Amino acid sequence: LSPGAKMGCFTFIKVMMILFNLAIFLSGGTLLGVGIWVKVDGESFLKIFGALSSSVLQVVNVSYLLIVIGAILLVIGFLGCYGAQKESKCLLMMFFSVVLIIFIAEVAAAVVALVFTGLAETLLTGLVTPLLKEKYGVNDTFTHIWNATMTEVRCCGLNNYTDFNNSYFYETHNSYPGQCFGVSPPLAHPHLRGCLLQGCFKQILEEIKTNAGVAGGVAAGIGALEIAAMAVSMYLYCRLDEK
Fold this sequence. Notes:
Layout: H1 3-40, H2 42-49, H3 62-86, H4 89-115, H5 117-135, H6 140-153, H7 168-173, H8 200-210, H9 212-242
Family: Belongs to the tetraspanin (TM4SF) family.
Main location: membrane
Protein name: Tetraspanin
């Protein structure tokens, strides 16, 4: 290519890099704002958007998840956009490094999820079960999310209804949550029939497996975007030496 054509290609890719990362930056700001909103006023968020049923997000803290993802997108968007605008090799290398770390972490997480599902269940049990015992029936937002989860996914607790043994709710009401059995008020003793005795982890895992094709397609798309972003940042980084 002639020098003019090379410069035109460089300029086009630079503009695309700026616009792409500007969109990422704005998306990160939006998620960060929503995460802070959920943290400060979770009840209003749930009333507006409804119960987040049939989702893994219901067994983790949605607000912190949104805040973390939003902050990461803000950093990535800033590094990519400002680095391309200022033609800064340092910022472009930082952008490449951050995206590479995230890509490696995603691949590692996917491998762990596929190979060590039992380990994931053990870790979730260690984290979520104590929260169920301590916060269910105490924290309104946490209780509402779990009630919606157990009703819509037709499950009880993370592993099964015994997760509520010795919990604040059981000690206070001397019963298990009615959502575990599709009735209200709660039952004093769980019956031994029906899918409601199944834990939410297995139910959500089954739903993920059912939609594995869609999830895999989304994951592949995200991975492709990350690889493309790293390739573009390296192209700009290398071309700066030739300018």
